[in-house]
Specification:
Elements lengths: L3 E11 L4 E6 L11 E5 L6 E11 L4 E6 L5 H5 L5 E5 L19 E4 L3 E11 L4 E7 L2 E6 L5 E5 L4 E4 L6
Parallel strand pairs: 7-12
Antiparallel strand pairs: 1-2, 1-6, 2-5, 3-4, 3-6, 4-5, 7-8, 8-9, 9-10, 11-12
Amino acid sequence: MDNLIRIGQIMGTYKLKGEVKLVTLIDEYDALVGQSVLLSNEKTGKERVIEVEAIKPINAKKLSVKFKGIDFITEAQELNLMSIYVRRDILGISEDEYFIADLIGLKVVDEVRGEIGIVESILETGAHDILVVKKGSKETLIPANEPFLLEIDFEEKTIYVELIEGM
């Protein structure tokens, strides 16, 4: 799944004709129509490749997605909580570029303090994004910009940071 990127998660059905609500991590989604995507439920291991038939915005972070062959609400209910993965080239992302969502699941290491934890989510603020890093019950918030982020190593699945006093 190296060439695939997670773009969101299905969070229920939408209307009665087989559409689902997708909480998305991307802003540009028009290129997905007519493309095959991977639906994956990480908890059950269930996977399915399916074609996107139509997409409409519900609000800023939710989309209504209609998949080819899913025509009834009962069929759409089976897709609930599945993550959607697409090929990077569909989204126009080159090898040296990344989405902020690519950082979720990476290990975070500070040169002085050692391992801080794993990126659990990203908070979007007006000024910059913030990495939510968890290790056990401890949560650390790290701005996703310089001077805090030193290096992102996708091969090692590690983000190197330099935290300031009090973080």
